[in-house]
Amino acid sequence: MYMNSERKSSGSSGIGFSGLLTVAFIVLKLCGVINWPWIWVISPIWISLLIAIAAVIILFIVQHIINR
């Protein structure tokens, strides 16, 4: 009996652009290179979240208009 040990994943993995940017901003803040408030240091996280929420709202509105 032959068992294939390879696994195929269709999902994405990794930190992504906004995560990488957040890590870079945190490192720069902790090293004293930038003197930004923490709200702006973690802004790539909440900006990405706001964009995703806006996209979902737009999709619901478009779906509602199409299904009238």
Estimate nothing, just give the exact number of structural domains. 1
- Poorly predicted sequence stretches spanning 5 or more consecutive residues: none
Instruction: Tell how many strands the DSSP assignment holds.
Output: 0
Summed up, the helix count is 3
Mean pLDDT over the full residue set: 88
Assembly state of the chains shown: single chain
Q: What is Rg? A: 20 Å
Q: Pairing-aware structural class of the strands and helices? A: mainly alpha
Pattern of helices and strands: HHH
Net shape: flat
Sheet having the most strands: none
* Separation, N- and C-terminal Cα atoms: 56 Å
- The proportion of strand residues reads under 5%
Helix content: 55-70%
What does this structure look like?
This protein is an all-alpha fold and 68 residues long. The chain has one domain. The chain has three helices and no strands. It has helices at residues 16-30, 38-41, 43-66. The longest helix is centred in the C-terminal third of the chain and has 24 residues, at 43-66. The protein is flat and about 55 Å long. The chain starts with 15 loop residues before the first helix and ends with a helix.
